[in-house]
Amino acid sequence: MITCSAPGKIYLFGEHAVVYGESAICCAVELRTKVHVEKSNDILIESTLGTTGIDYEIHPYVSYAIEKMQRLTDITGVRIRIESEIPVGSGLGSSAAVTVASIQALNHLYECGLSLEDIARTGHEIEKMVQGNASPTDTYVSTMGGVVMIPQRKQLPLLKCPIVIGNTNQFSSTKELVGNVANLRSEFPTIIESILFNIGQMSMIAEKFVHEGDYMTIGKLMNVNQGLLDAIGVGSAELSSLVYAARNSGAICAKITGAGGGGCIISLADDNTAMTIAKAIEDAGGEAIITKNTEEGVRLEPLNG
Ligand code: MEV
Fold first, then answer.
1. Domain range for residue 69?
2. Does residue 252 have its Cβ closer than 6 Å to ligand 1?
3. Domain identity same for 11 and 152
4. Which of 2, 26, 96, 114 could form a disulfide with 142 if both were Cys (CB 3.0 to 4.6 A apart)?
């Protein structure tokens, strides 16, 4: 049996803008999806969604991962078991993590010799097959780990502060949200294009402060980014309520992460405020997760891991 795991991700800056080629800063977080694989008589995929064979409705990402790997090697029977700490459909990159971890686990089991670059690229191809217009960000960050400037693929230093995530537990469809922004952009090109451009500029400006570990200034810019995400229509009352609960309880900043519409907010904290912020998020009806950045992308877990 082989076990591989891959991390979820958050956006410090730049979701939606990155779809139009603007810069974003994204980082892997210490919430992981584990994929266990072993050779078997049939193809079996097991998760909290149920047990299936190749099934593009229930397990699309893993099914496409098997299909892609079947082009490289003879996979007739394999048992794949998925365990995840990343809430599904929450903007934390659960689909990228399960895709990347599945490819790497099959890569090890069948000794296909794929590099990390190959895994990130194949993962992106699968996300596009399932979601339509997906950027390579999620699969790249889940594969490589760390804090990454996109599309430059530049690794930046890890943020050392705790990150408190607030989950609205409302499902959000990235495809739908990306489509809504595209429609707004067609209706008001001058306005929306300049907002997306300014979001990209924020990542460029923030890069220096990430290098300096200046979390107060990063936080000021993240709050501005939140305002612009609201302006392009990806906010919601629930997301705003968690953003203000975090800010009012001592967070350095708080903003949506990912597609918006539902899903999660992130806030930067310090060691003394993380618990208070988490409680404020819970009191406001959200689910709080205290986490931090990780430089580890997809990895092979030790035996029995
Ligand atoms: C979703 O996690 C982030 C978006 O920018 C879409 C994408 O990059 O594919 C909204």
1. 2-156
2. no
3. yes
4. 96
- Identified catalytic residue from 42, 55, 138, 230: 138
* Distance (Å) from CA 298 to ligand 1 centroid: 20
Is 298 among the domain residues?
no
Q: What is the CATH number of the domain that holds 281?
A: 3.30.70.890
Helix (H, G, I), strand (E, B) or coil at 78: strand
Tens digits of residue pLDDT in 201-230 = 999 999 999 999 999 999 999 999 999 999
The last residue of a domain, from among 135, 156, 177: 156
3-state class (DSSP) for residue 260: coil
Q: How far is CA 1 from CA 71, 76, 97, 113, 304, in A?
A: 22, 16, 19, 18, 9
Q: Are residues 191 and 236 in the same domain?
A: yes
- pLDDT for the residue numbered 303: 77
Ligand 1 atom closest to Cα of 134? 9
The answer to whether residues 136 and 211 belong to one domain is no
List pLDDT tens digits, range 86-104.
998 888 999 999 999 999 9
pTM value is 0.94
- What is the residue-wise DSSP string for 232-246? TT---HHHHHHHHHH
